[in-house]
Amino acid sequence: MIVSHKHRLVFTHIPKNAGTSIRNWLETHVPDARDHPDEFAKHKTPHHVHDRRLAKYQYFAVVRNPYDRLLSLYNFHLERHAQYLGKKSQLRFKQVYHEKYAELQKGFQHWLTHPFPMADRKAKWYDYRWCPQSLWFNERTHVLKFERLAEDFKWVQERVGTHLGPDAGLPTLNKTSTNNDHRTPANRVLLAPHRELILSHLLVDFKRFGYAPNFDRTKG
Length: 220
Fold this sequence. Notes:
By secondary structure, the chain is of the alpha/beta class. It has helices at residues 19-29, 66-84, 95-104, 108-113, 149-152, 154-160, 185-191, 195-209, and strands spanning 2-4, 9-11, 34-35, 58-63, 141-145. It has one domain (1-72, 105-173, 180-220): Rossmann fold (3-Layer(aba) Sandwich). It contains 8 helices and 5 strands; from the N terminus they run E-E-H-E-E-H-H-H-E-H-H-H-H.
């Protein structure tokens, strides 16, 4: 969660929804944009941060088609753990990373359906697969869509000022190398057997943000 008191603006960072790119942009172009001092607040929801100063601030967050987001979460974990085991990484000497990578290599279906313990929210690798994006929203949160982010992000740019030059576009950071579009034939094959499971957890996001559960991209 990043706050600009000057602009009375709060960015709520939902994992795998271009949050790293937006965080970088805010820190570069908004001088007073800072992480909220509440410990472990990076991915916290507005309801977990009790700061009276924020009571009348405008929040914003990026949402994404839930199918695409699940694919992105899995591929991010898989690629990141492969990096952890690289020749230049000191983490390759820790058995826990080898074990986690071995589990991830069993595939998307195993990752999606394999039981896992509820992780500590303070842990680096807290598992957000079944956390609806709606949990990160309050009544003052402005919605930006991942699928049209270049256009929607203009709302943020206009709010913090029109002095920004042509080099002030939103960067693409922390992106996986895998295609996470649920409409591709390969991804439809991965997702189709698990639609009932996915909708049982995340139907609220399909309804709230206008995504169609029948594998179409969006309604609008």
